[in-house]
Amino acid sequence: MRTTALLGGHRRNRHQLLIAMLLVAIAFVGLISASGRAGAQATQSWSITPAGGSPDQPGNRPDLSYTVDPGTSITDTIQVWNYGAEPIQLKVYAADALITSEGSYDLRPSNEGPTDVAAWTILSSNTVTIAPSSVTAVNVSIAVPKDALPGDHPGGIVASVATPTTNADGAQVLVEKRVGTRLNVRVNGDIVPSAAIKSVSASYSGSLNPIAPGSVKVNYTFVNTGNTRLAGTVRLELSGIAGSKSVDLPEVPVTMPGNSLEQSFTVTDVWPTGPITAKVIFTPKDDPGIADLQSIASASGSGSTIAIPFGQLLSIIVVVGLVVLYRRRRQAKIDRLVAAATATPRTPPTPPTEDREPEPVG
Q1: What is the C-alpha separation between 222 and 330, in angstroms, rounded?
Q2: Which phi-psi region, left, alpha or beta, contains residue 199 (left: φ > 0; alpha: ψ -120 to 50)?
Q3: Are 232 and 287 in contact (CB under 8 A)?
Q4: 278: closest CA among 232, 220, 225, 233?
Q5: Is 324 inside a domain boundary?
Q6: pLDDT surpassing 80 at residue 316
Q7: Which of 184, 246, 272, 289 has its CA 20 to 30 Å from the CA of residue 122?
């Protein structure tokens, strides 16, 4: 009886162990399934490109770019790609372009009404549902107004997903994740590329080390004053009593008409030699549609600063101070010796005595 009871206990323990292992396995499978769904959502990936010659291959055009007369109608096609393992629904729309304060090309959010090229653009569909690893085409129609201003009108076509989330205040908000392809319509007419370099300022920061150079910080504002997009290179020329120095600054990215870009740059290894002039020179990159662009739209601006050699002056002051202190201490020592010598009483010298023999009497 005791043996049977023990065997029965072992069987119950094994059954309980098997049930526990089964529950753990079910929970583990559930976790894998949940993490798989979360991973699928986290790895949603899509893109939008100008269409190519084949419906299942992206085109080789970098963007949608046209040069047309006022009143022209344009038709084209874009492709929207789903690279994920789940179907995806996307909102597709046109938006006008802007340049951020950091100088990046961006598109206005969907809640801002279009006012330029986006207002001229109509899509065959504003919502698309794309199967996994598939692509769909959307037709694009652009009606350029007859009174459209000559020059560049930048924008883009966007494919986006709005995801609900909670912000820092605990409120529910929609976060729009989007990708896009650039759109630019250049309207023929009086094309005037122009740029300006404004608000050039310079400031010198020296070193207390008399044998170390300092640095010059230069700020300037690039302004696209024409009616075409511009990008180009920037060179800084520093000139002073001791000579000149030329430095290549970061390039100006594509900047739209009327936009400005504030830039700042620090040049090291500059010796403090008094007045320094900082000249900023912009040279635009070539545009196949505009002849002599570099001579037309080049621009420059200047600012100045005074590089005071604080470290060197401090060293001179220290040396002069040490010399003066040494001379004063040396003079004080001499004065003390003189005073000591004059203050000691002197005894008159005793005349010497001589033993003389008496002179003979004659």
Answers
A1: 62
A2: left
A3: no
A4: 220
A5: no
A6: no
A7: 289
pLDDT the model gives residue 214 = 87
Cα 345-350-353 angle, rounded to 5 deg: 170
Which residues touch 284 (CB under 8 Å, ≥6 apart)? 193, 195, 230, 231, 232, 293, 294, 297, 298
Got the DSSP string for 63-108?
SEEEEE-TT-EEEEEEEEEE-SSS-EEEEEEEEEEEE-TTS-EEE-
Task: Assign 41 a pLDDT band (cuts: 50, 70, 90).
Answer: very low
- What is the C-alpha separation between 154 and 224, in angstroms, rounded? 14
How far apart, in whole angstroms, are the C-alpha atoms of residue 111 and residue 120?
17
Mean per-residue pLDDT over the chain, rounded: 81
Residue that has been written with the tokens 């590329």 in this structure? 193
Q: Are residues 85 and 209 in the same domain?
A: no
160 shares a domain with 213:
no
Check residue 202 and give its pLDDT.
Answer: 94
CATH number at residue 154: 2.60.40.10
Instruction: Say if residue 172 is in the same domain as residue 50.
Output: yes
Q: Which residue has the tokens 């549902």?
A: 129
300 to 1, 66, 228, 244, 257: CA distances (angstroms): 106, 30, 18, 17, 18
Strands 127-130 and 151-166: unpaired
Q: What is the number of domains present in the chain?
A: 2
Which of 275, 267, 205 lies closest to 235, judged by CA?
267
Structure tokens at 93: 């729309």
Asked if 213 and 257 sit in the same domain, the reply is yes
Consecutive H or E run containing 307: strand 299-307
Pairing between β-strand 64-68 and β-strand 127-130 as defined by DSSP bridges: unpaired
Distances in Å between the Cα of 246 and the Cα atoms of 231, 249, 281, 306 are 20, 10, 11, 18
Separation between Cα atoms, residue 92 and residue 345, nearest integer Å = 113
Tell me how far apart the alpha carbons of residues 283 and 57 are, in angstroms, rounded to a whole number. 37
Which of 108-117, 214-223, 352-361 has the least mean pLDDT? 352-361
User: Is residue 353 one of the residues assigned to a domain?
Assistant: no
